[in-house]
Specification:
35% helix, Nucleotidyltransferase, domain 5, single chain, alpha/beta, binds zinc ion
């Protein structure tokens, strides 16, 4: 029997990435910057433009999508996008079926990242697995032995918007001191005049930076007691320069009485955690 082909789509606030898997092998991959002013119509046109030749060439029938914003996993609709206008209740799955003739399954990108790392990356065999991304924003996903945990209406693990510094600086969401406000990439330029890739080379800066980050992760451990936390997104690429001080800070902050496992590692699939997760999603592993 010939291997099946799966289309994988990662819709982010800064870039759109598409790939084709033959079985469990990534054989095509294209990434392009997101035109934020274009909204869902631009995104839909780009996906169709890039994927149409693949759909014909490989007879693709299934697709997995990680969307960079809240998704109702039950109704399979985008709820909204916090970074791009026009996505309110957008039915992307139906639009792709109409334009490409392909059936899709969609989830929030951080949930899909949890699937990718959980089945193919740094979280293999670790359950419950908490996946967190630190890039433009911060988000999370929880993969348990019985699959993804979405919560009542799909907002579980939106860890970026819990306060880690009471009365801290105001976040885009309107609250103060959110984990995302203190640690996400979008704020580096505004707060420090330099991107994260430069700032995180300074050990003194990193010592300060990991304090609110460790607080957020400590809360995650206290609530969820995961077997492992995998951190993806651009900032996780800082490697040991970030993870060594982060682990030290976490052991300082986590109370001595707790015997909870503290296992925090970078993502293994680099920029493709969500593509690999989309493969799992499209093939019913969620
Ligand atoms: Zn917030």
């Amino acid at each position: 029997m010939p291997a099946t082909h799966t289309l994988a789509v990662d819709i982010g606030g800064t870039k759109l990435t598409l790939g084709v898997f033959r079985g469990e092998q990534l054989i095509e991959r294209v990434s392009t910057p997101t035109d934020r002013s274009g909204g869902p119509q631009w995104m839909l046109n780009e996906i169709v433009r890039i994927a149409s030749p693949w759909v014909r060439q490989y007879s693709i029938e299934r697709c997995g999508i990680g969307f960079g914003g809240p998704v109702n996993s039950r109704t399979q609709q985008v709820i909204c996008s916090t970074h791009v206008e026009g996505w309110l209740n957008f039915d992307l799955v139906a639009a792709l079926k109409a334009r490409l003739g392909v059936s899709s399954v969609m989830d929030r990108d951080t949930m899909v990242g949890a699937l990718g790392e959980g089945f193919y990356g740094a979280g293999r065999g670790a359950r419950p697995l908490f996946y967190m991304t630190i890039s433009t924003g911060i988000g999370g996903g929880l993969l348990t032995d019985s699959g993804l945990y979405h919560g009542y209406d799909s907002f579980a693990c939106e860890i970026g918007h819990h306060a880690v510094v009471p009365d801290g600086p105001e976040c885009l969401c309107g609250a103060r001191g959110c984990l995302e406000r203190l640690c996400a990439g979008i704020w580096f330029e505004r707060d420090y005049g330099q991107p994260a890739s430069i700032k995180l080379r300074d050990p003194e800066f990193v010592k300060q930076y990991v304090r609110p980050l460790a607080r957020g992760l400590k809360n995650c451990i206290m609530f969820l007691n995961p077997a492992r936390i995998v951190i993806g997104g651009g900032i996780s690429k800082a490697g040991d320069a970030l993870f060594t001080p982060l682990r030290e800070e976490m052991s300082r902050q986590i109370p001595a009485w707790s015997r909870a496992t503290v296992d925090v590692v970078p993502a293994a699939l680099a920029d493709d955690s969500i593509l690999w997760g989309a493969l799992a999603l499209a093939n019913g592993r969620y």
